[in-house]
């Protein structure tokens, strides 16, 4: 792949490996294993496999390798390891890089499963975890120690869309020799520049914007070759979190259109946020692209856009929020994001249901909060759908 290609070119042509048939579309190598010409070749490959030599699909596969190279090129990472899901990626990055006795500092506002790994799994293996307010650089500075090995955060948090200052945290982490791992799902691979900003490792759930059409699970860990082909590959290939070749093929086709989709979804999110701000049925609209967002300047500096998701708080709590959801005609009630279909989620009752009430309060996950992942529908149709549902759900207040 040519390094001077711009993103859209990389997303269409990056990483391609053509078979002897010279097919146009990426080939789907739906195979677990590979045949060796002779016993000597088998022995040599187990000793050291070259970049285009495969052994077993848990270690690597040509379709999966195309996906890894394409997303690494986009992210500006030296290498990538594809995983079965976003959680396989987060788990792989953390387990591969940590050992008993290490200390981790992490932002408190996290996807539920990420929080589970930090609070329930890592401590079982002797890793100590300190949770901080990810938006407060002083809190990161106060929490890191000589034995801090890793800092972890979602660069844009779910569902309240707080922005973590990647460069700021990286400076604090690197000063004590800790690695920075950024879960970048909400920032999206299109707007992310996390590695240039100081992140050592970036993870994505490819289930979100990379597929973008609600079909498959996938994930990826990106970073320096030394780490990806060192501890990450060793952990992933022996523990079974490999991406299926079929899913890699779907995700490769997703990457081809991702730039167009994410930019259109972001334009819709910006439009809806602007139109909904001030709606009397809402007590707040949270969107990093609005000047009213507490970290608007940081979001513009770090990402240059507000992303594809907005959140808003409906007056009247659970009852009004449920009435609103049940009145929607275009947006569907679900919990994925980054999809072509607009998805409305009530986090307090779904993705964050199990979080204790005091934690919900700290994180701003109120009963009336709705997370809206903007899809590819006509923005005017969506606005009408949202406004009509708000008006009827809140008895005409809207
Ligand atoms: C969805 C998501 C994950 C997990 O990804 P899966 O593909 O569902 O395993 C991790 N982090 C964030 C921020 C997510 O949104």
UniProtKB/TrEMBL annotation:
The modification N6-(pyridoxal phosphate)lysine is found at residue 208. Its EC number is 2.5.1.-. It is an enzyme of class 2 (transferase). One of its GO terms (molecular function) is carbon-sulfur lyase activity. One of its GO terms (biological process) is transsulfuration. Pathway: Amino-acid biosynthesis; L-methionine biosynthesis via de novo pathway; L-homocysteine from O-succinyl-L-homoserine: step 1/1. SUPFAM superfamilies: PLP-dependent transferases (SSF53383). It catalyses: O-succinyl-L-homoserine + hydrogen sulfide = L-homocysteine + succinate. It comes from the Bacteria. One of its GO terms (cellular component) is cytoplasm. Its cofactor is pyridoxal 5'-phosphate. It holds the Pfam family Cys_Met_Meta_PP. Keywords: Amino-acid biosynthesis, Methionine biosynthesis, Pyridoxal phosphate, Transferase. Homotetramer. HAMAP family: MetZ (MF_02056). Catalyzes the formation of L-homocysteine from O-succinyl-L-homoserine (OSHS) and hydrogen sulfide. Belongs to the trans-sulfuration enzymes family. MetZ subfamily. PANTHER family: CYSTATHIONINE GAMMA-LYASE, TRANS-SULFURATION ENZYME FAMILY MEMBER. This is O-succinylhomoserine sulfhydrylase. It comes from Marinovum algicola. The gene is metZ.
């Amino acid at each position: 792949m040519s390094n001077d290609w711009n993103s859209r070119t990389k997303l269409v042509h990056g990483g391609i490996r053509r078979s002897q048939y010279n097919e146009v579309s990426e080939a789907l190598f739906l195979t677990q294993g590979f045949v060796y010409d002779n016993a000597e070749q088998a022995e040599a490959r187990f000793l050291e496999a070259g970049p285009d030599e495969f052994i077993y699909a848990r270690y690597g596969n040509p379709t999966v390798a195309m996906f890894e190279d394409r997303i690494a090129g986009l992210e500006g990472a030296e290498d990538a390891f594809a995983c079965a899901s976003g959680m396989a990626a987060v788990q792989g990055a953390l387990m591969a890089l940590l050992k008993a006795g290490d200390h981790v500092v992490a932002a408190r506002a996290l996807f539920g499963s990420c929080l589970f790994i930090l609070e329930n799994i890592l401590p079982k293996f002797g890793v100590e975890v300190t949770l901080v307010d990810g938006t407060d650089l002083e809190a990161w500075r106060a929490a890191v120690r000589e034995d801090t090995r890793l800092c972890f955060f979602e660069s844009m948090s779910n569902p309240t869309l707080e922005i973590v200052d990647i460069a700021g945290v990286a400076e604090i982490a690197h000063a004590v020799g800790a690695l920075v791992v950024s879960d970048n799902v909400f920032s999206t691979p299109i707007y992310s520049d996390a590695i240039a900003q100081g992140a050592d490792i970036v993870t994505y759930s490819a289930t979100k914007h990379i597929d973008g059409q609600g079909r498959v699970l996938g994930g990826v860990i990106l970073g320096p070759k030394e780490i990806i082909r060192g501890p990450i590959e060793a952990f992933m290939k022996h523990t079974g979190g490999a991406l299926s070749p079929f899913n890699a093929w779907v995700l490769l086709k997703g990457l081809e259109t991702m730039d167009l989709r994410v930019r259109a979804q972001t334009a819709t999110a910006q439009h809806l946020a602007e139109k909904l701000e001030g709606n009397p049925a809402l007590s707040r609209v949270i969107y990093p692209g609005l000047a009213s967002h507490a970290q608007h300047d940081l979001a513009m500096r770090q990402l240059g856009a507000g992303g594809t998701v907005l959140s808003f708080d409906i007056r009247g709590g659970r009852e009004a929020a449920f009435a609103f959801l049940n009145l929607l005609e275009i947006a569907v009630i679900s919990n994925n994001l980054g999809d072509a279909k607009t998805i409305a989620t009530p986090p307090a009752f779904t993705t964050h249901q199990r979080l204790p009430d005091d934690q919900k309060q700290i994180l701003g996950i109120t009963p009336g909060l709705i997370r809206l992942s903007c899809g590819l529908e006509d923005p005017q149709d969506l606005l009408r759908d949202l406004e009509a549902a708000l008006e009827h759900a809140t008895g005409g207040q809207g």
